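Exam review. A common question shows you a sequence with its structure tokens and asks you to describe the fold in words. Practice with the pair below. Do the first one on your own.
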Amino acid sequence: MLEKNMRDTRRFYHTIAETAWMEFQTTINIIKELKKMGYEIKYGKSIHSKEFMMGVPKAEVLKKYADTIDLEADFDTSEIFEGYTGVVAYLDTGKPGKTIGLRFDIDANGIEESRAEDLRSNVEGFRSKNDNAMHACGHDAHLTIGLFTAKYLMEHKDSLNGKFVLIFQPAEEGVKGAKSMMNAGVVDEIDILIAGHVGLNIPTGTIGVGTIGFLATTKLDVYFDGVPAHAGAAPEEGRNSILAAASATLNLHTLTQFSKGMSRLNVGVFHGGTSRNIIADKAYIQIETRGEKEEINEMLKARALQVIEGSAMQYDVKYRVEEAGEAPSLKNPDPEFYGEINDMLKAKGYNTTLKGNIGGSEDVAFFMNRVTDNGGRAIHFIFGSDLNAGHHNDKFDIDEDIMPIAYQIMVDTVEYLVGK
């Protein structure tokens, strides 16, 4: 029954996939479920620091999507529809003990789900109903694991001790959401933080304990503003923003040469111009930098900004840069704690591997760093899953059998920690 209920929940949220800061239906439904369980809930502006909200869509974009949603709720949803998505749930057992935080991300990718006839979501009828929004990274599974863990905690609160904080975080894709919640104080009282991710190149049945390899990253949106002109009659009167963006794109990809550690840079979006016979006055690129240490990422970001400025000067156009996302590397890995939890899980019969490598960026690192900076401990799991296609692919799908396993790992870890 657990397996079926988790599968049904995951598939429901898969159908309503929503991208960063627009997780309106997702947030409202999570709140409804948590309120039924009896949780104290915080949401909206109370769990965000507006100053640190990055990459929020324009108000007209938020409103256009919000106007398509018809959901009844017995609570005020106005701030959710302004982009303050996500939920934090609180449980106090009334008995002394640690405050344990559990974090689950809830947003989807901005990608159109494949219509391939053999894709399970099409065969079994749970394809995303929203254009250009798909759970192509497993966050539908994450929030499902979170809801069932919440149910367990509430049902067993009399045999537990301490307090629990369950964080259903928006806007992980593009690493936009955690910094806002961290600066609103969401994790400040947490003694031990637990988080996890499905897939990530570990097969079903294997659990990565104590994830490493969190890359520091910065996401930049770059706007070039030139001067339009007739491309045939008077090209010299124009200032070509596409050439500036193209020059920047090519030169940016030469920068990842650092002796102090691994680095990455990618230009993932390039838009420009309005017509073939007009010198393009507008161009836009989205770039990201990554480094295995924050020092490397900061050096790479600084060099990227120099290249962008130089490209704008080269073609005599104006430019502006907006930071659209950010995540740090993991500052304080805790091999002793990872080993302790690994030994406990092995003793329970799980097939585990220490220090699974995430090989990318995850803004849960903001939460983990804040908790450890405050003297607490933090651990991240990789819940191994065979995948239909890689993360962020339009044919992505998980092995749903991993969800009950991940749920049980959360339960076993909590029981171990409160038992201590």
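Now try the second one, then compare your answer with the model answer below.
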Amino acid sequence: MKGASILITRKIPEAGLEVLRASGADLTILQEDEQQGVPRTLLLDGVRNCDVVLSLLTESLDREVLSVNPRLAGVATMAVGFNNIDVAAATDLGVPVTNTPGVLTQSTADLTWALILAVARRLPEAHNYMAGGLYRIWGPNLFLGADVSPGGSGQRKVLGVIGYGRIGQEVAKRAIGFDMDVLAYDPFYQDGVEASPHARWAELKDLLQTSDFVTLHPLLTPETHHLIGMEQLRMMKPTSYLINTSRGPVVDERELVRALSEGWIAGAGLDVFEDEPQMAPGLAELPNAVLLPHIASASRDTRGMMANIAATNALAHLRREPAPNVVNPEVYEADAYRERMRGAD
């Protein structure tokens, strides 16, 4: 692959870079600093002069970006979600797009449970209290939280899972150890929910009204944008908690701030935000919100495997081969793709 070029928008883990270096392709990394995004002009210039783009979810690859290079052979994103890429435009232009599915399922399910436990038992508040030197004496009312397992009352808690794909199923499976009842709602996978040994089907309204913990795992689509808004938050119990490790815009964040401030629900654990890295006004000041900087897949093993898969996808694009994790497979049958490949040759 000498002479071929791969544009990496921001530095990825070494496991992926090793795969790319071994190919002999020329690599360009636009941004080495993990705390900095890629300026739009730099992104456009980079895409204009490469054969394949390996991007992260932080870059917007819209029609303008995808159109600047007639020889662009493909886009490989190091993420499961791809709502930052205009896939319809990519297909129209003949550009295959790939993602990294499956590999982060376990890590995300684990972090979902970390948020459930952290917000229910008020762990960040307790940590700050202890680290701040405020602890003087044990007290029977100090940082009272909520049980996740039946606890002293013997009452089984209800976990509501919205979106019952790979991650939702793993979250439900982990609830077994906490002796929870699990409800699940997924309008695209009702048969799968009904066949699951770990959950039973519930309509969205029933799930919200019944659950002690509601955890979100749907894809971000026009139908799931603001899936949880004022009406849905009002349906939840005042003792319940909302967890989101999917995509920020699934929740109307301003209404969530209101719900947390006015006691419609007891708390929330969020790893994603509607306008990352910004948060809705007032959210950061709420003691009943546990807030994380999008780290659901942030284990060394998982991020390394994601980088490896993204690199493998990028090399398939570079070889003009059908990629193993393509999200728009119909592109390979399109005239635009054939014309693009002829132009690249």
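Model answer, second protein: The chain has a mean pLDDT of 96. The chain has two domains: 5-102+300-344, 105-291. Full marks require stating both points clearly.
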